[in-house]
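Any chance you'd type out a single protein's sequence alongside its tokenized fold?
>
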Amino acid sequence: MIFRARQFEWSFPRGAVVMGIVNVTPDSFYDGGRFLDPAAAVAHGLELVAEGAEILDIGGDSSRPGAAPAKEGEELARVIPVIAALAAQTSVALSIDTTKPAVARAALAAGACIVNDVAAHRGDDNLWKVVAEAGAGYICMHAQGSPATMQSAPAYQDVVREVAAFFVDRLDQIVRAGVPAEQIVLDVGIGFGKTLEHNLQLLAGLGEFARLERPCLLGVSRKSFINKLLNTPINERLPASLACASMAIEAGVQFIRTHDVAATVQAVRMTEAILAHRT
């Protein structure tokens, strides 16, 4: 199985890919604006690369629960200088975390090669056409509602089955918009329109998505569902995040998105080494 994103290609099976998060926002649920300054964001991104990140995911529009969307010009001003600087200073793949076609287009022109779309349930194909024209990779994330409304009353009859059906439908639509299947990764969207129980069911059912024959990405890093289960503040959620990452590797997930790259790389590689010795 292959994932292609412009000049980059990942062929699986191989070790899981760790994606480092670079939030260039004033209101990130974890970073809290620490990297809003472009120089600070670039320095942080380079630090994550040194820790083992193969991809950096740069975002200028917070998707935390309850967040209002940033204006297009504001988002562009936040992310484009960071992407351009990182593209000049590192050779790892750069992802733009956005839902806006204009931002995606500008980011791809500045050096990004992947579009991470938390609004893959969109009703039009404008963003997908931008991805197709650029030959970029695309992360198709499941969500119910928008960041502003997604946690108001999420409801499913069978969350694993319904998310899988969503991916089947979206894969068809995205391919028809011109994006080859080999350029698509699937993300179940932990915390995006899901209750604690929904999140746990999805984590337990990650292996079910292998039948879709596309790589999967998991993003659980320090998310609030951990607090709902374990009553842990955000700065104490790393062990639970690593537990989820290790279980995801066992289930066959190929990409892990995280704030904590060094610790996640360690946990992932140890899990892979143990699994390689199973008989």
